[in-house]
Specification:
- It is built from 12 helices and 7 strands.
- It is of the alpha/beta class.
- It has a 7-stranded mixed β-sheet, with helices on both faces.
- Strand 5 and strand 6 form a beta hairpin.
Length: about 250
Amino acid sequence: MKVTPPISPLRRALAESRLREVDVAEALGVDPKTVQRWLAGRLPQPRHRWGLADLVQRHEYDLWPQLAGNLVPTINPEIIAAYTHRGAVPRELWRQLFASGQSEIGILVYAGLFLAEDIDLIKIMCHKANDGVTIRILLGDPDSEQVALRGAEEGIAEAMAAKIRNVIVLYQLLLDLPTVEIRLHNTVLYNSIYRADDEMLVNPHVYGTAAAQAPVLHLQRHGDSDLFNTYAESFERVWTTAKPPPA
């Protein structure tokens, strides 16, 4: 006799809430195939579990009982390493990161003067650009209120804007290359991001602390890459609102 497999708590909750797979996909901003994988047994990333729980008005432990017995935190496989401050990141890692880019390199900072002053890194980016790699660099708008506030927070006042203008000059060599574009943003920047394809260094900003003294996460895209994609999507949002520097 054929045994019918039990209905999963998630499938039951969706049925009771009269939600279709396409409804869930639209509400959470994911592909319907992703919802199908969840219904087949794949455990969603935390933010999607919480979103699902809110949709059906259940606790996530009701939808995935196995979580209740697994309260020991696990290390996210996307995190390769964590450094106590930016200066602790080996110089060779910066070189390896940008040298590894085969499709795109992205930099999101207010100034990032330490990069622009490193002639070896500039040479690497020039070489990559000549090979057709897209390089997008986001700098803070030196005339923006956000840059002025960040300079005040770090205790360097107008020096922040001056650093950005200096960086623009130092990047002139890159600007002559067709695959390189620099834009200025006026966002409140919570993290500096340095990306090459599926790998990135993220430097969280800490109020009252210079970025060089703040921690750095070394991330690599892995599986659904919820953590990696969070920062990658943030970069794209800033890019769409930024503008080229004045001629």
